[in-house]
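HOLO CASE FILE
Compound: zinc ion
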Amino acid sequence: MCNSNVGTKSGSEDSSFNNLLLCALFICGDSMDIDYLTECVDLAIRASELDEVPVGALVVKNNKIIGRGYNKKESSNLCTRHAEVEAIEKANKSVGSWRLDNCVLYVTLEPCLMCCGAILESRIDKVVYLSKRTNVLYNSSDYINSILYDDAVDLKEKYLDILSDFFKKKR
Ligand SMILES: [Zn+2]
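Model generated. Tokens follow.
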């Protein structure tokens, strides 16, 4: 009887502690999103310096970056060298598995359909992106769990400037 009471009490304490922990993780996760997206923009700048369309991506697991990538389509002469693919491949190597369970992919630009396929294949849980593609007839969220990050107005403006500068140079 006594034991069962103790059990119940500690059980409820456990559950409120777990709720608190979940809350803290949620808040922490949210505030980290902008840091990860800022690093994605830095990677996109590296791509533009190499005359590549500026796109940068990261894979994060348990608040640790396990893969980074930026677009290298021109320099590699490979149509598949998108930032997301490079970040996913590096993450695969880092965990020693093709499965990227419990991972989040951050990327500057909404993923293309090829990358949506790679994201599905890798079992990545969630994608957070900074800027929506405007010239396509699909929504990535129809295929993957993707979220447009809307709380970083300055960062988004900075990225859109980088993108438009790049295409102005190309014209
Ligand atoms: Zn892509």
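CASE NOTES: The longest helix spans residues 2-49. The two ends are 80 Å apart (CA to CA).
CLOSED: yes
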